[in-house]
Amino acid sequence: MSIDIQENVSLAPFTTLGVGGPAKYFVEAATETALVSALSFAKERELSVFILGGGSNVLVADEGFDGIVIHIRIDSSEFRQTAAAYPYESDRTNSIRTIRAGAGENWDDFVRSCVENDLAGVECLSGIPGYIGGTPVQNVGAYGQEVSETIMEVHCVDRETLKPVRLTNAECGFEYRKSIFNSSSAARFVICEVTYGLRIGGKPKIIYKELIERFRGREPSLTEVREAVLAIRKAKSMVIDPADPNSRSVGSFFKNPIVPKSIFEKIARNSPSEVPFFLLRDGFVKIPAAWLIEAAGVGKGFVLGNAGVSENHSLAIVNRGGATTSEIISLKQLIQSKVLERFGIELMPEPVLVGFNMQV
Fold it and tell me: Which of 51, 57, 114, 258 could form a disulfide with 119 if both were Cys (CB 3.0 to 4.6 A apart)?
């Protein structure tokens, strides 16, 4: 199959931050066959490969990427109902509908379609930018829900053999913001399709504080939960909106750190205000990175050159207009150093760093 290989294509327009240099080679892969052809092209020329989805979680170096960027645009999907028990939730009373979704489909369009069809399991993940293919990589989650709760199978191409592979939920190695796709097998698999299992007529998941407070004990519909999540995210500029400069970001730039309970208790003892937290298993506690950042002295609206912290959410680094990647990195490092100095916690970035020749 012939594919259109372009040269020196600027990557900034393909990212939500809008920064970064060009790709030496660039190709759109709308089918699995096109993907394999592009990977073969790269293998024959010994090129580095970066797989690009919706660009909502990547930071491209100012120098660009000296290899081939393959933009995944596979968008086929299929709805079908099964009688299987729901495998990943304690609520097994609902039958499920399995949905196979192409890696190049828009994630929020998918969520909207699920909610409209009365399918529960992804409603709290409304408004998250990006494509389907990126959701297993980071085990995307928000407001108490993660995609690992509903992913049943991930269909990939193995970059070593160029053959198709189907991985079960267990084989994906899901943890908080982690999977084999961004850890042990980060350079091996390219996601082409994801199969989700959604509960037909299931109840929405209401465990996050903001949602609990909003609905005050009553049981909302899936539509109401989606609308509430979108409203909360929009208020924080966490929904991409060309009219909102605070949304020119990758969303949450840092992961919420998970620390031993003893570390949390030390922070709480020395804090003049109440420290928000989420108690996990085995004596660990998750602390909101946004709280740590603000408590370390970097508040909403903080500016460093053409980069800044969102005026509506301290966890988002934004391109204020004309920013370079170097400016984004400088602000990232400043925030990390402030939090490390104040709390002894090293914040880890969420976005994938592309084209960097050294650790940043």
Answer: 114
